[in-house]
Amino acid sequence: MALKETQDFQTMINPLLTAADLPSYKAIKPEHIEPAIDERLAANRTDLERLLAANTEPTWESLIESLEDLDDRLNKTWSPVNHLHAVLDSEALRAAYNACLPKLSAYHTERGQHEKLYRAYQHIADSPEYDRLDAAQCKVIDDALRDFKLSGIALPSEQRDRYKVIMQELTQLNAQFAQNVLDATQAWTKQVNDEAALAGLPDSARASARQTARQRGLEGWLLTLELPSYLPVLNYADDRELRREMYAAYSTRASDQGPTAGQWDNGPVMERILSLRHELAQLLDFNNYTEYSLATKMADTPHQVLDFLYDLAHRVRPQAQRELEELREFAYAQFSVDALEAWDIGYYSEKLRQHRYQLSQEELRPYFPVTRVLPGLFAVAERLFGIIIRPVEGVEVWHPDVRVYEMVDAQGDVRGRFYLDLYARPHKRGGAWMDGCLARRRIGDAIRTPAAYLVCNFTAPVGDDPALLTHSEVLTMFHEFGHGLHHLLTTVNYLPVAGIHGVEWDAVELPSQFLENWCWSREALDLLAGHYQTGEPLPEALYQRMRAAKHFQAGIFLVRQLEFSLFDFRLHREYDPERGGRVLEILDEVRQQVAVIIPPAWNRFPNAFTHIFSGGYAAGYYSYKWAEVLSADAFSAFEENGIFDAATGARFRKSVLEAGGSRPALASFVEFRGREPQIEPLLRLSGITA
Ligand code: ZN
């Protein structure tokens, strides 16, 4: 009887409303989501009014710290939902998630337009207390005042209402965009019954395709549009028609073209998003969305960004043209191919790489078993930043593949924890990312340590062997781990500027791209590479070939990045209500200016460009290159002082990682490097020769 009562009591507790720091994933059901959000939002609204009523003379302690409580508890309810939507989507979960979006959007607008709250912040900014606050606290106040303006606090009430409606619709459209991409990606598969059709494909890709088929109760091999399946086909399959077919399916996802044409078409979604973003920017007195976007970034003006991108394009394009010409000549001379189509580029590039460097990505795989790479990555972090990473048992996760770790510093203090979800699977969004689960903050006399999600989409292990990664997957792992270090090693105790919070978006890729550099160093590779069967270290000859091939087609790669960046930026800068978004037109113009490879006219790459239509990179995709100036220049300090120089590592940790968003990113960089950033290391490390 007593037991029964306990059980009933427990089922009544909504797992999204508990005070526990880490979410109980197993207990979270779709039906918990909306009631939890309703309750949290209602409680936050009531508590905010109570707080303001009690605060006639607001201070940091009486107001800002209490507000942190409200934000933190809402985050604890929503963050696991948002995360599950990305990694374990289902129809019921998605419905509940979508139902919450307008409610959350309305709440955030209300907060951003709350006059009493705004005046309270202003009061603190104008009071003598402000001069006694530390720099991080001042930044919290300044950022908040800026964000009030960006939320329309200064607008007349009619326009404020319009702002709210725009934000709600945008939130919903951003989600719809990503959901369309996911659905279109899942919708297409190709069953292969004759192994001869897979000629050229590496064993790893065949085994994986076989496993995928078996998991779905099918005979033969199953190819999907998830990257671990798609890329090997494009790079290795001898069957040109198979490559064409998969390229066409992949590059027309969520569009009016290709095998699922019209079913999840993001075309109208993009138009609407662009139109609303433009209206939002103008409502707030900006000329266009790029100006709105830059209001919170390191770059000052749209001109500065465009100059930066076009200047890079000018330096890089001749090299990219040469590289493409070489590829054409090679394909013609060796294979009598006289017209290279979009689905041939990857394939003949691999052949050329093989021909020139006797190196294929596949050859490296056996040296990068995940069971070796992970401890190796942790060892690199230990040598660089003096932290130890160890597994934590007993933390609830959302999938059996997920592992949990903690970071411990030299004093033995746990600085943060992270979840690691490495493998591609159905109903999981593609790509790789780091996201905050909890941010560091002071609660009373104690410090609540942060937590993060590190998510990748690598090929899952096949049979009993560990997952064998390509070198580029190892780079991805280092990249996301770099973000993780930034979020977890922070020593800032104020939630809005702790870890990656409050960091300008165009500087946020600094620690991530920075850490990738270690994947090329012999010393680091000795820590993270070893044959999965024999344990043999990466042979020197193979390493030398890998180094030699590092900049293979570097120009082609870079102009592609510039194409994406310029497309995104010009799209948001040139929006014209009369003419509409002109998505394909602007893409064409940009390609004429900077690209060397022009895809077929039916390619609908923008329709799956989630970074800018549902992620945070709108009018901000240039951030990758912008931050790479910083990351390459920061890395060059290690080239000068030693790749594992402890003093330089400690300085980077203190100046950049620990400082988080507590000050402008440029200030952190200058403290570390002793001067302003220079572009030369980026060009050199990217293999761009003058
Ligand atoms: Zn990143």
General description of the model:
The chain has 690 residues and is α+β, with helices and mostly antiparallel strands. It has 28 helices and 9 strands. The protein has helices at 2-12, 30-54, 60-87, 91-112, 115-126, 129-132, 135-150, 157-187, 203-215, 227-236, 240-250, 267-283, 289-294, 302-335, 342-357, 361-364, 370-385, 471-488, 510-516, 522-528, 540-548, 554-573, 583-594, 610-613, 623-641, 646-657, 665-673, 680-685; strands spanning 189-192, 221-224, 388-391, 403-408, 414-423, 433-438, 441-443, 446-448, 451-458. The protein has a 5-stranded mixed β-sheet with strand order 3-4-5-9-6, sandwiched between helices. A two-stranded antiparallel sheet has the order 1-2. The longest helix is centred in the middle third of the chain and has 34 residues, at 302-335. The N and C termini lie far apart (80 Å). Mean pLDDT is 95; it is low at 1-11. The structure holds zinc ion. Zinc ion binds at residues 479, 483, 509, 512. Zinc ion is lined by residues 479, 483, 509, 512.
List keywords for this structure.
single chain; 690 residues; alpha+beta; 5-stranded mixed beta sheet; two-stranded antiparallel sheet; 28 helices; 9 strands; 58% helix; disordered N terminus; binds zinc ion
